[in-house]
Amino acid sequence: MKPFPESDHCDGRSFHNPASYRLSPPLQVPPERPSVEPDFTSILSWQRSLRLRWPNDVPTFSPEPFPELAPGEISASFINHSSFLIRIGRAGERPLAILTDPILSERCSPFRHFGPRRVVPPGLAFDAIPAIDIILVSHCHYDHLDRPTLRRFGRRDRPLCLAPLGNRRHLRGLGFSAVATLDWWQEFRFDPITITAIPALHGSARTPFDQNRALWSGFHIDTGRKRLIFAGDTAHGHHWAEISQRLGAPDLALLPIGAYEPISLMQPVHMTPEQAVEAAMLLEARHAVAMHFGTFQLTDEGYWEPGGRLERCLKSMGRDLSWFSLPERGQSLRAP
Hints:
- InterPro entries: Metallo-B-lactamas, RibonucZ/Hydroxyglut_hydro.
- This protein is α/β, with parallel strands linked by helices.
- It has helices spanning 40-47, 147-157, 239-247, 263-266, 273-283, 305-316; strands spanning 74-80, 83-90, 93-100, 134-136, 160-164, 178-182, 187-190, 193-198, 218-222, 227-230, 252-256, 288-291, 324-325, 332-334.
C-alpha cells in the first residue's frame, strides 16, 4: 500500500512539482549551465565555494510593540529568514499566535559546528515571543524545519503543528500537542480561522537518501475578515494565479526574495526579487512583505542585493515602495 494519495504532484511514494505550474518558457540561463532540479549532494558541493562572503556586523533593529488588533485583524512580526509571528485578534481573548518556520538556532544545519551560520540575531528573542498556539512548517529543509527551535516552543507552549504530507516523522518528539499533515488545498479549521495548505514549487530532503519523500507547501490563513498567505519556499510559477482564484486575493502576502544565485541551480526552487513582485501582482495582494533574506548565507548573491533589487523593481514599475515591504527584524506589519 502506498503511503500517500496519488495526484498531479505525488506518485504515492514521493513528490514532485507539477509541470502545469512551471513557467513556460522558463527564465533564460546560459546554455552551458542548464537549469536542473538541485539535489542534496549538488547543494552541499556548491555551498563549499560561495563567491561573496556576507558581513558579520550588520546593525540590529529594536523590536516594536505588538499592535492592538480588533477581532479578525492580522499582524505579522518579522523574526528572521522565513520566521514570522502572526497574531490574529479575537474578541475577549488574547490574540491567536502563529509561528511560521521558526528558526532561532545559530546555524541551519544538521551539524552543530558546520553549515550556514546566522549573521544577525533574531528580531524577537525566544522570551519575547508570546505563547504560541500553532506552528506552521512549510517543508523539511534545515533552514525551515529547525528541530532545536521547534523543541523549545513545543516544550514551553504545547502548540499544534501543521505541515505538509510526509513531514510527521521529522516532527516527532518535539512536544507538540498534535501534528497534522496536509496535502495541497486541504483545510484545517482552528476557531476562528481556516488554514489551507497551498502549492509551492520546491523540493525536500534532510539527508542524501530522502529526496522529495515529504511534501512542501505554503499556507493560506483566512480569519473571515482578513486573508494572509505565507508562501513558504518556492520558485515562480503558475500556482499564484490558481491560489488567488481559489482562495481570493490576500490582504497580506509573505513572499521569499532571496537565495536565487546561481540562477542555473536556484531557478527551479527560489524566486528573484523581481519574480516576487510579479507573484504579488498575480495574487492581487493588497500588501506584500519580503522574507527569506539576510539571515543565513545560503547562496551567492550579496547581503544587500535582494533588498536593492526589490526597491529598483518597484520604482521601475511605478509601484509605491510601501506596497511591498522589506521588513526590519522585529518589525510588525498590520494587514491593510
